[in-house]
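Record pair follows.
FIRST:
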Amino acid sequence: MNGRLLKLILFSLASCLFSATALGQTLQGVVFQKGTGSRISGAVVINLRSNHKMSTDGLGTFNIPAFLGDTLEIRAIGFLTQKRVVQNFSVLFVHLQTGNELSEVIIYGKNLKQELQEVEDQFRSKGIYYKGKPPLALLSPFGGSPLTFFHELLSKDGKRARRFSKYAERELEYYEIASRFNDRVIKSTVPIKVEELEDFKTAYLPSLEQLRSWNDFDLLNYLKRSYEEFKKDRAASK
């Protein structure tokens, strides 16, 4: 092996090592609801150093580039935000505590909208302009763009954009519901016990269409009627 070839090999190895070091490693994790073992889909995971963002899938799992010492912030509507420092690259298990005060919902909602817009901007930088759902008009030979259509429809980025779009719609819908149907409003309307709140909200969570059609008086009446039914059901089950 001559000296020039050896230098070329050493340079290639050094370049690969530098690239791997610059990108960091992929950290895998799972997000659970604390105390239940239920997995949380759609939680937002942010690397605060790189500002890289992604959301957990239907099984509550995520993969995010990171270095040792990076701080991850994990957020989900209805849960308290948690920060975790990357200490190794074993699977990271995160357990989020529920927290439903109105102020937390409002702050989270504002941050969520900003983060969703930032992620959509990241998709646009990769050529995804229609959230992974390209219109058929792009196939038109008159001013269309078939390459854009098939890129959005078939590429991995297009599939990720469709999943993210569904997540974003669901989170924004839940945020709007939680801004009116929350612990503070419920406790100020009916004499409910703290330990009953989660069961009550699960059983009587109104749809977004209902809330949009109600004024405050309608909502209060709904809460009172629902709580009476809730008490009867609990008494009958004992």
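SECOND:
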Amino acid sequence: MRPPANSIDVQANRRQFLSTSLGGLGVAMATPLLSLPMVAHKVRGIDPLKRLGKPSLRTGLAAYSLRKYLDLKAPKMDLFGFASKAAEWGFEGVEPTSYYFKESTPAFLAHFKAHCSQLGLEITGSAVGNDFCLKEEKALEEQIASTVQWAKNTAIMGGRTLRIFAGRTPKGDTEAAAVARAIEGIKTACKRAEPYGVLLALENHGGITSTADQLLHLVKAVDHPLFAVNLDTGNFHTEDPYGDLEKLAPYAAVVQVKVDMQPKGKAKEAMDYPRILEMLSKAKYRGSLVLEYEGDEEPLVAIPREGAKMADLIRAKGL
């Protein structure tokens, strides 16, 4: 789905931003979050991401896959051990989820980056938990500030994307009001994160992003060159999840892969990896295919097997 004709300047805006944005890790803008009027948003929207060259996929592993070992309340593994396991299992990159950093000082982030570099691993990006639908302005500002801080942290580690959420409609509120706040929250976070050059990638994660149409509405309403989509293959529970994923693939800056999906009214079924790869190839996707394991099997057993399966299919398809 392409934006209307009056948005043809969006790609030009992207190019202008990329050529003039500040380098390095400057201080993020401190624009205050103003009261958000609940009005209809003029639809402009970002274009699908411009792909140059052939499709190209690299395997990655999300730290969330090993959450039962990385949980900071009772850790059995740290992020350094996670990265070492990912390298041992043959993954090309890692996505260190923000939840599992025991500290996030520049020195610690640099140490982790160096560890991954020594292992030959790319840090694809990171992921933050946030809710931009909150009604209380102070709480919403805290969510935005945390997101921007993690954009900076991701840049220090050399990552290119930060997975973000939109949120869920608060009890007693309307979805329209929640969506309006989420749109302004994403815009504000993107603006403040400009000095770091990290794409804020919105995941289809339930709430106001439960369907492709809901997420596309946000995609159209947020007009910023640092905004993109984090496509999660297992999070749509509609009648046609693969069709919904295909609608969003052109906007995806990062793809998280689950081992199964559950269409509406049906039992869980194994993820059709070849179909996902065909979809991404058609969209000329160039980026990471990050395994986010949420299955019932022991992750130390399932992850290397599923990672190898993904890598074999990517090679077989010449991607």
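COMMENT: The first strand starts at residue 56 and ends at 62.
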